[in-house]
Amino acid sequence: MAHRSQDTSLSISDLIQNSQLISEGKPARYRLLTTRSDVDESGEIRKWTFGRRDMNMKNKIILMVGQTGTGKTTLINAIVNYILGVKINDDVWFEITEEEGVNQTEPGTAETADQSQTQTTAVTVYEVSVQGNPIAVTIIDTPGYGDTRGPEYDKKIAENLLKLFEKDTGVKEIDAVCLVVKATENRLSDKEHYIFDAILSLFGEDIEENIVIFMTHSDGGTPTNVINAVKKAKIPCRKENGSDPVYFLFNNRQAEQTMRGQRLYHYAWELTEESLRDFFTSLEDQIRKSLAKTERVLTENKRLKACVSNLEERIEFKELKHVELTQIQEALKQNQENIERNENFSFTVTRSHKEKVTIENASWWDRKATCCSVCQENCHEYSCWCAFNPAWCEVMKDGRCTVCSGKCHHSKHIRENKKYVIKREEIKMTYTDLIKQYERADESAEDISLGSLSFVNVKKDHERNKKQKKKEMSVEDRLKEELSEIEIEKTQLLEEACITIMDLSQIALKPDSAFIIKSLDFLIPRAEETGDHDWVQKLKELREIKPEAQARADSVNRYFSLSDAKKTSKN
In CA terms, which of 27, 83, 215, 514 is 20 to 30 Å from 94? Predict the structure, then answer.
């Protein structure tokens, strides 16, 4: 498929003329001189183009994902050499990738907007075409995924992928998602579980048939251990024979010098060339998938995740308020004699309140949050970096927030480097303070209910009667009523959270992702406390994952815990 013929307009000498020598030898290594541009203004999505594609060429678009050290970079260059029609006897090896920190300054190139950022989280799109080959290729590379910098950088890479899919000049379709693993591995590491869980969670369920496994560092034998590990982890991908993942084998020695190990060198070329031929042939029968659904899934996924996080915070706040009121109730029980004698007394209570604080010790893309000033809630706390103002935040839809309690208009939101946190402190208060506190609350509520022109007269009377009745109630009765109201509100929040997490699980390619499992583990015991057996049953059914999915989720959590521990030790 990808071979040179006598009438090929771009020969090896032409390719060398359009390249820069890296090192001499057999093979001589060259870096292709590419035309470079930025897909977005930040320079975090880069497009490097070699050659010019004509209308008759079929362009294949593939996304490469793999842990640092799997040989993904060498594999990208191997695909490029295959498309260019390079053969082993040509004694050359062309590279389109660069080591971090290497700048290309040849004519027709452009440096990115922020080199320090692009070296860490940039997504690079390589476009390669050559006259004489009917196939061109677009390779989307996610460099550094899962490296030592930690999960916070990987979130940014995922955000860049979303931007790539959203941009008019970005990528709108995809032929294959290639998960790169070493054929020599006996098991998938915690980090690989995390990487695949994070990447596959970005896609809609319609992408599964377009996911394949690329196995590097192969000796050509059947990689039984890796196949079993992929099957055991239930990684969604294209299958053959009903259950076996579709995979392609590669060796990574094409760029090595041939002074020693001539046979291994020849074998590496043959294996890789044969696998790439099979891979591209398989794409001819594979239906290219539009990323429109994935783009919608990504946006909805982000909204739902923000909603779940928000609901969990609100539920936690209600629980803490419940504890606070229970402590007050217990103090009143212990001081009944003082109350009957109309004597003042003091007691200690753990009070919870929300306070807006500066976001510290966070990656720069997590240093701003969109918060509702009316509800006093965090609407979009993590990865809220690309919106210029609240109106552009992903959690906004038709001008209103999809997350906060009141679903308030975007104008009621503030996007800044601050967020709401729950603060707890032990305070000493007196019975007199408690009574005054309720009186102030009544007066404030009365002013609001009677002073608003939006209330009809019937509602005014209802509110007035309700406030008067509360004044006549004892403090003990008021506490009981507040505790009851908190339980009702908590039940409502739980129901909303349950609906949201179920919606999220339905649109995701991976309904057993680590995020969904963690959220279910938070919701199920709380649903059990409310006694709502229907919701408990629904959530438990959703939580009934296979042991291999649980093992994968545990691996992801271990990876996060290890990363957090390393971060803490550095601080």
Answer: 215
Tell me, what CATH number does 141's domain have? Answer: 3.40.50.300
Query: Number of folded domains in the chain?
Result: 2
Q: How confident is the model at residue 17 (pLDDT cuts 50, 70, 90)?
A: very high
34 φ, ψ to 5°? -105, 155
Q: Within 10 Å of residue 187's Cβ, how many Cβ atoms? A: 14
pLDDT the model gives residue 490: 80
Domain that holds residue 242: 12-288
- Looking at the chain, the whole-number percentage of residues with pLDDT higher than 70 is 77
The count of other CB atoms within 10 Å of the CB of residue 475 is 16
In whole angstroms, give the CA distance from residue 125 to residue 46. 6
Instruction: Identify the band that residue 122 occupies on the pLDDT scale cut at 50, 70 and 90.
Output: confident
Domain finish residue from 236, 267, 288: 288
Can you give the length of the chain in residues? 571
Structure tokens at 542: 């959703």
Regarding whether 195 and 97 lie in a shared domain, the answer is yes
pLDDT surpassing 70 at residue 365: no
CA angle 439, 441, 444 (to 5 degrees): 110
- Cα separation, 493 vs 487, in Å, equals 10
Give yes or no: residues 428 and 453 share one domain.
yes
Residue 370: partners with Cβ closer than 8 Å, 6 or more residues away: 378, 379, 380, 384, 387, 390, 393, 395, 413, 414, 415
Are 278 and 313 found together in one domain? no
Q: Is residue 196 part of a domain?
A: yes
Give a yes or no: residue 565 inside a domain: no
SS3 259: coil
Residue 213: strand, helix, or coil: strand
In this structure, the answer to whether residues 270 and 385 fall within a common structural domain is no
